Amino acid sequence: MSNLPAYGCGLAVLLAAATATWLISIAKRDASVADILWGPMFALAALVYAWPLDTTPARGVIVLSLVTIWAARLAVHVARRNKKEGEDPRYRDMRRRNGPNFALKSVYVVFWLQAVLAWLVSAPLLAAARGTAPLHPVDVLGVLLVLGGLAFESIADAQLRRFKHDPANRGRVLDRGLWRYSRHPNYFGECCVWWGFVCFGVAAGGWWSVASGALMTWLLLRVSGVALLERTIGERRPGYAEYVRRTSAFVPLPPRKPAVYRAPIDLGN
């Protein structure tokens, strides 16, 4: 129960940050700035959870460092992408559907909703920052998952960025590197990162952190990640259907071999 005030304070701070970013989005007429805020929201939440403590436990220091590194990389990556590509098509579509009232609606449809989701997902950071249990082998697993996932998504994003920057690849499908084994290796890496933070939360005694990992996985697979991208990408990439047939959607796996047509045998009947 003693952690509830800190958790509530985290929600208030994230809503305030989301509102400030919403004002920036109105000035820029670009709701994509919400995506830049996503990563830093977690670093901000972790800082809020650790701030009232006289001495932050070693686990809390490790988690705060890791989430800050992850958040900074993601924010820089999204900012670079948005600078080149402009407002994300998802938000342009929302503008069309909501008409001239989108600027006002976006404060709760986009920014406050994002803040609440980040707050819910940040639960393991609260447990790690304020738990007093000694370091455990599960913490080592957490470090490995976070660093491995961070490396995986960073490599995948770099491969995609190089692919898009080559004009010869316009309209083509990236099926090399990590993208040969998964259609969304960057999201898989991010999923690993968050299950790593779940490990820290569980090691600190916050068994309910598992719900946070499940929520983030659901978001990546069904809401803002895989499902959302694959609704329209086939229309923009003619070769995507074949890529889907041979490539795992999420978990990296060896590519499936294409089916070989075998002519029927003439038995002379």
Number of helices: 12
Shape field: globular
Unreliable segments of 5+ consecutive residues:
none
Largest sheet: none
Rg (C-alpha, Å): 21 Å
Coarse structural class: mainly alpha
- Please state roughly what percent of the residues sit in beta strands, choosing from under 5%, 5-15%, 15-25%, 25-35%, 35-45% or over 45%: under 5%
Mean pLDDT: 90
Task: Write the topology of this structure.
Blueprint: H1 4-28, H2 33-50, H3 58-85, H4 89-98, H5 102-121, H6 123-130, H7 137-165, H8 185-203, H9 209-223, H10 226-230, H11 233-236, H12 240-246
In brief, what are we looking at here?
This protein is an all-alpha fold and 269 residues long.
Textual characterization of the structure:
This protein has 269 residues and is mainly alpha-helical. It has one domain. 70% of the residues lie in helices and 0% in strands. The longest helix has 29 residues, at 137-165. It is globular and about 55 Å long.
Which features characterize this protein?
269 residues, mainly alpha
